[in-house]
Every structure is written in structure tokens, then in C-alpha cells.
Hints:
Elements: H1 6-20, E1 29-31, H2 33-39, E2 42-47, H3 57-67, E3 76-79, H4 83-95, E4 99-103, H5 109-118, E5 122-124, H6 129-142, E6 146-147, H7 154-170, E7 176-180, H8 185-197, E8 202-208, H9 213-220, H10 246-253, E9 256-260, H11 262-276, H12 282-294, E10 302-307, H13 314-322
Helix pairs in contact: 1-3, 1-7, 1-8, 3-4, 3-7, 4-5, 7-8, 8-10, 11-12
Amino acid sequence: xxxxxxxxxxxxxxxxxxxxxxxxxxxxxxxxxxxxxxxxxxxxxxxxxxxxxxxxxxxxxxxxxxxxxxxxxxxxxxxxxxxxxxxxxxxxxxxxxxxxxxxxxxxxxxxxxxxxxxxxxxxxxxxxxxxxxxxxxxxxxxxxxxxxxxxxxxxxxxxxxxxxxxxxxxxxxxxxxxxxxxxxxxxxxxxxxxxxxxxxxxxxxxxxxxxxxxxxxxxxxxxxxxxxxxxxxxxxxxxxxxxxxxxxxxxxxxxxxxxxxxxxxxxxxxxxxxxxxxxxxxxxxxxxxxxxxxxxxxxxxxxxxxxxxxxxxxxxxxxxxxxx
Length: 324
């Protein structure tokens, strides 16, 4: 896979916009008076938790599948902890393609139930996202299927980057954007899109301390592998594939990285419930947790926090609400 430049990804964002716009929602950019008053910044929430399938992932999945030739009848295979799985399932139904999805054995029950409702075949394999992804890739290679990566694909990154296009349309004066980071597809797409329009805009990567693979890779100057540790931000957990095209893009486009603890993620989820009656998954709360710690550096600036998903399972809701 050749390494795309940020300029090429910016062009791919526009191509993805043209492909997927009829099939997705332009999500709200909601001004947060409570968070603005608490921080001294002008804070906006990009509500991708209200996207179809409950997260931004639909953008990338649709971009990839719609980029394939209608004459290419190969089946689709992918792996995911949940949100990408839901997105690919929806995209399969929309495009009329066949495929299968692999998830780890510990995938959230609510996401499994949503997959069952969509009627797309799935299997649980392995104890963590790395094992399920390896299984999916073996099947794609051995049976001539199209593997749809959650992040390591230019068309997928372009689709995720349409979040940045919407932010620019909704708030042209944006100064900084806080984005949760797993494999880096979302932040690479947003960063390429927004920095092409305003190079001095700050792109901030937000990661849980229990899943800091991109941060540690950037810090080391090479892709590193870390032991899997459970996190409330399960949608950003997992390994970074060797040769991932997101790695050099993140090194170039992301200005700052902040790691947050599990208690900070939990408190951010509770803060959103208290101030906005907004229930989001842990990966979305990571951006608020990071901003809350660093807010003093952004006083007086227009800041967007990307609420990347809202597919939170009942067990986590009970933990958040009941303070267990």
C-alpha cells in the first residue's frame, strides 16, 4: 500500500464527500454553554454519536464500499470491536453486497444485538481486537475477499475526514479540534481536511492511558505493539498494523497528544449527562476528558470536541450512572 500525502488525503475527503453525502447525516455542531463557561473557551460538540449506526464509522465504510466497481462482486470481510462492524453492516445492506464481520469474544452485547438486527453474518473470534482482525485478514487473503480496514485505507480515511468538512462549513473560525485516536483514521482525515484550509489550526489527539498505541508509536518514531488492557474507550482499543498509512499522517498532522485515565473518562461521561443530558460511549468522552485537563491553554479560542460515538452498552450505563 503506497503512502498517501496529507494533500492526497484532503482530495480523498472531497471524493468521499461526493460519494457518501446522500447516505449520511450532517450531524449537529452544538455550542456548549456549560462547557464554555467552565473552560473560558468557546466549546462546540460535534455530535457524531447521532450519526446513522451511532458513530462516525459509517462515513469510512460507505466511502470504501461505494468506491468499489459495481462489477467487483467479491465478498467483504472486516473486523471490529463494534462501531466499524455496525457501519460495514449498514453499508453492506445499502450497497447490496455480501460479507462477514469478525469481533472479539468480549465485544459489547449491545453492539452484537444491533448486528443481529441488521441481519449481516458475524462471528466472534479471539480474546481481543488483534486476534479477530488477524482472522479476518487471513480469510480475505485466502478466499479473495475485500478486507475493509477500520482505518488503514485511503478511502476509509477520506470518509472519516468528511467530519472535518462539516466542521469547516459549520464553524469556519475553528481554532482547535479534539479527536479520540485509535488507529488514527478519524484524526488523519479531519486533520488533512482542516489543515488544508487553515494550517495553524490545532489538531489534538486524545487517547486512554490503557490504549495509547498511536501515542507511543509517534513518540518512538516507529509502530509499537502494546499489551491489550481493557478501557471504557473500547472503540479506540487495539493494535496498530505494521505499515499503517495513518502513522505518518498522524506524525505530520497531529499537533498534541494527551492521555487520560479511566476515572477521567468516566467523569467526562458523567459531566456530559449532567450538563447536556447526553449519553455517549467512552471513546467520545476521551476528547472531553483531555480538553478538561488542558482547557486553560485554549481560553478564548473556538474548540470542537468530536463526540465520535454513542453506542454505549447497558452495563457501562449502569456504571456511569450508579458510580460503581
